Amino acid sequence: MSEVVACGYIGLTCGDLEEWRQFAGHLGMQVSGQSSGEKLLLRMDERAYRIAVTPGEKGVQYVGWEVPNAAALERLRGRLAAAGVETDADDAVAKERGVEALVRCLDPGGNQLEFFYGARIPADSFVSPNGTSFVTSDRGPGDLGFGHVVVTFEDYEAARKFYMDTLGFRVSDICLLPDPWMFAHVNPRHHSLAFGPVPGPSTYHHFMLEVESIDMVGLAFDRMTKAGVPIATTLGKHTNDHMVSFYVHTPSGLEVEYGCAGRKIDDAAWSSTTYDSPSLWGHHPLGASAA
Ligand SMILES: [Fe+2]
Which CATH entry fits the domain spanning 6-121+131-282: 1.10.760.10, 3.40.50.2000, 3.40.50.720, 3.10.180.10? Predict the structure, then answer.
């Protein structure tokens, strides 16, 4: 079993924080009062933030993977060292992220990962600007993480070894696109990570946010189309996690999948399978690619 229990936070960059501030409203996320002109902190549950946006060239700066406590972080660091993965632990970065401690490393695509525990819970509750409720909890508060991330690797086998063998993520299923893409879970959320082989630099294709109802998905779609936000795909339903969702371009370059009704995995009763197609219906590109 993996020490990692959730996809905890994501750090994004973009040229114009104001653009993200408006986009966050369309998503139904709350801009934290702890935000500054140099950092936008976006909330979707009791955590101080789940998305942090700082100025820079569009992209993903880091992904924070949560472990339950200090002992698990130590074990994970040992596991990485045994696999020959270099790590560092920076107290100043942990403080900046609002966590007790973190250990950083690069994955085989050169993406910065931060394994952390002890995320801060502020006194003030999450309040969505438009009544949106996000799904981040199953058996305990926030135990499903903020959603999932999907990333490409030139060297698929190196990525598979790192995430599945070294970190111990568990196979949910494989989807043929037509190359095999791995969908992996670390908690009951169907997948917290998916990755597949694509030539060139490793790139995050999208992250996913799950809301509580199809009405919340439709209302977000209406807010975005009304505001002229570039939608990437039509509404659709995925074969493997049953998520009903659409994809939209974020101000950080990657897309966000916005959906509801994702199914959960019970490890005691789950057999992995292989899907020939990613969607039962929909998810048709609107002048852009989607996966
Ligand atoms: Fe997705």
Answer: 3.10.180.10
**In angstroms, what is the span from residue 70 Cα to ligand 1's centroid?**
30
Q: How far, in Å, is the centroid of ligand 1 from the Cα of 45? A: 20
What is the distance in A from the centroid of ligand 1 to the CA of 252? Answer: 17
Coil vs helix vs strand at 27: helix
- pTM value is 0.97
Q: Enumerate residues 6+ apart whose C-beta is below 8 A from 25.
A: 31, 129, 130, 223
Residue 9 · residue 49 · CB < 8 Å: yes
Is the CB of residue 207 less than 8 Å from the CB of residue 148?
A: yes
Q: What are 224-239's pLDDT values in tens digits?
A: 999 999 999 999 999 9
Q: Is 180 left (phi over 0), alpha (psi -120 to 50) or beta?
A: beta
- The token duo for 251 is 């101000």
3-state secondary structure of 275: strand
Q: Quick one: tokens of 45?
A: 């549950």
